[in-house]
């Protein structure tokens, strides 16, 4: 998704803007731009298609500096990726804006502006906002008031940063539906889509609320809430370090994040499990009472986070014996669900800003659920702030578009939720101790699984030229197969599908031939024998099998069957997290062999803040 950076200071802010954009690259984008007020008070704008590096090169060619400016990375929604559609967009009299989100009523506003004599140079909804601000400023005389008048007319989602030649001492911001954060400095202030962009210049942040309009000057921040009242927004200190979002010695963020998983999972458990017990206050002060009353669970999420929820359904039903439904947010939000009494509504999200998940939460809050719980990786995110209960995954910043450590920490957090629910629904202290112990062992099992990397790297050579792949699993391993297929298609662009292995003979078996690798996750559980029969069906049709199997599965490599032996003693409650690791590594190495952009795969964005 698009990224915003802005700065006002007593020094040249262009390097800060460029570094900020570079740190937002992980969000996904197709073009970049910057607008700076130069020393003679004129707006200078540069825009380029492609990577931030291109913009940086353009700045070297056309030296640009100043003490006030805004910058942007654009992920195309309205209009193709091109220089003229890239932000900042400008209107008359030196007004420049950058915008994240989508304006739904842009066409009618555009028509009105055209009849007022404004000419458009792009196909974007953003340019409409720039001209609207100019239009209002003519009447109201002040840029802050003009922005407030403009946002009152907008339908849709936006985070905006606006500068104007005649107000060289401030940047105006507005937020509705898209995150924006103010970085507080010493006699200088900043703005960005998320804190990671500003970590080299500050650790202090102000998070705007929905409907806020703010102006930042060098020494001052003023915020008005949606009703136009002066609002006090707390300054918070971020615990993240500036190098948390660096690759270090790894060639890609994805590989770094795969190898960070033992630590990330251990951190997610820290201080939350102790002495064989789960400390359920970790979910919030009301958690005990809410879990006691919970009679059913509805989980809503997107993509990888949805797969974590789909695994949790098995655990919640088998271990806590509560009914559980899981749905992708973009579908859930357009249903009119019947909500059974005392149902807990759970959202799962790495970013906490996914538009569909957030909309589903807002809808759920009006639909009679018992309470809402968010499992999320970003403490300051909208989802966290709007949920009654929260359990933060402590994965640290995940920069690779492909979710890896966010997924296994979500599974861990969901494991804690299962224990909490089970405690109130029949599990005794011994059962709790056993489950907690299983959770504590996960980091060590992941560590051992990571030792398979050289084997998997070799294996990837047999996939790299394939056009299709099938992933199979049964029970809670079906969502893990789905996650494996998503990873492979997302970063290597190999078409991959996942099936519950028992479903194969109802159609997909027709696809199986020697050219279709079939990748299977086979822990030692009560479905193993059934799974083996399904694999026979594949082998009998000449399908090439690659099975990640428990050492006690009794399976051995043979003609057309490659067994990759996983660590010993992986229990039912641990298998989802542990067996997802080799699938992440397989996708990564296939993508490397195919030469794709692993961390920023084509067409995708890290944080999907549009519907
Ligand atoms: O931030 P979220 O977890 O809400 O994002 C949801 C999906 O967009 C995300 O999980 C996506 O599927 C992954 N990048 C895939 O690896």
TrEMBL record:
GO terms for cellular component: cytosol. Residues 2-219 form the Glutamine amidotransferase type-2 domain. The active site is at 2 (nucleophile), 606 (for fru-6p isomerization activity). PROSITE patterns: GATASE_TYPE_2, SIS. It catalyses: D-fructose 6-phosphate + L-glutamine = D-glucosamine 6-phosphate + L-glutamate. One of its GO terms (biological process) is carbohydrate metabolic process. Residues 286-427, 459-601 form the SIS domain. It is an enzyme of class 2 (transferase). It holds the Pfam family GATase_6. Homodimer. HAMAP family: GlmS. Catalyzes the first step in hexosamine metabolism, converting fructose-6P into glucosamine-6P using glutamine as a nitrogen source. This is Glutamine--fructose-6-phosphate aminotransferase [isomerizing].
């Amino acid at each position: 998704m698009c990224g915003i950076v802005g700065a006002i200071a007593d020094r040249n802010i262009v390097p800060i803007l460029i570094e900020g954009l570079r740190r937002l690259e992980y969000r996904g984008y197709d073009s970049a731009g910057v607008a700076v007020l130069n020393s003679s008070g004129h707006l200078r704008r540069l825009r380029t298609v492609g990577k931030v590096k291109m913009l940086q090169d353009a700045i070297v060619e056309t030296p640009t500096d100043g003490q006030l400016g805004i910058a942007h990375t654009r992920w195309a929604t309205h209009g193709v990726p091109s220089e003229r559609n890239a932000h900042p967009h400008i209107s008359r009299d030196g007004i420049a804006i950058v915008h994240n989100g989508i304006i739904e009523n842009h066409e009618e506003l555009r028509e009105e502006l055209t009849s007022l004599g404004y000419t458009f140079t792009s196909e974007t909804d953003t340019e409409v906002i720039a001209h609207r601000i100019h239009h209002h400023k003519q009447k109201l005389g002040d840029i802050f008031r003009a922005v407030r008048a403009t946002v009152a007319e907008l339908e849709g989602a936006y985070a905006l940063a606006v500068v104007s030649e005649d107000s060289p001492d401030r940047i105006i911001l507005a937020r509705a539906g898209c995150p924006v954060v103010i970085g507080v400095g010493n006699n200088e202030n900043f703005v960005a889509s998320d804190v990671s962009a500003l970590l080299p210049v500050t650790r202090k942040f102000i998070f705007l609320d929905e409907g806020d309009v703010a102006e930042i000057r060098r020494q001052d921040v003023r915020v008005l809430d949606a009703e136009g009242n002066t609002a006090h927004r707390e300054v918070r200190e971020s615990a993240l370090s500036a190098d948390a979002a660096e690759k270090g010695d790894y060639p890609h963020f994805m590989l770094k994040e795969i190898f960070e998983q033992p630590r990330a999972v251990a951190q997610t458990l820290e201080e939350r499990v102790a002495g064989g017990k789960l400390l359920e206050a970790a979910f919030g002060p009301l958690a005990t009472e809410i879990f006691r009353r919970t009679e059913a669970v509805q989980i809503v999420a997107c993509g990888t986070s949805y797969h974590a929820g789909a695994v949790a359904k098995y655990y919640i039903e088998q271990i806590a014996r509560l009914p559980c439904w899981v749905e992708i947010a973009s579908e859930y939000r357009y249903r009119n669900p019947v909500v059974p009494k005392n149902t807990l509504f759970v959202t799962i999200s790495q970013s906490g800003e996914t538009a569909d998940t957030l909309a589903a939460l807002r809808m759920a809050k009006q639909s009679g659920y018992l309470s809402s719980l968010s499992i999320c990786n970003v403490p300051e995110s909208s989802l966290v702030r709007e949920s009654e209960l929260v359990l933060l995954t402590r994965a640290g910043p995940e920069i690779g578009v492909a979710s890896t450590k966010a997924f296994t920490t979500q599974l861990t957090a969901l494991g804690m939720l299962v224990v909490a629910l089970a405690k109130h629904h029949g599990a005794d202290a011994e059962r709790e101790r056993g489950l907690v112990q299983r959770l504590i062992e996960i980091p060590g099992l992941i560590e051992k699984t990571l030792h398979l990397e050289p084997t998997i790297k070799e294996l990837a050579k047999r996939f790299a030229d394939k056009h299709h792949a099938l992933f199979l699993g049964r029970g809670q391993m079906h969502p893990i197969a789905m996650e494996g297929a998503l990873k492979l298609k997302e970063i290597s662009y190999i078409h991959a599908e996942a099936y519950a292995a028992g479903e194969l003979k109802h159609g997909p078996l027709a696809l199986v031939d020697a050219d279709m690798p079939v990748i299977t996750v086979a822990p030692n559980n009560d479905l193993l024998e059934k799974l083996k029969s399904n694999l026979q069906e594949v082998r009998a049709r000449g399908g090439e099998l690659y099975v990640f199997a428990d050492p006690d599965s009794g399976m051995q490599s043979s003609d057309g069957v490659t067994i990759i032996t996983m660590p010993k003693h992986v229990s039912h409650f641990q298998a989802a997290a542990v067996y997802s690791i080799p699938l992440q590594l397989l996708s990564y190495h296939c993508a490397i062999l195919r030469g794709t952009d692993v961390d920023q795969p084509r067409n995708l964005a890290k944080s999907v803040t549009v519907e």
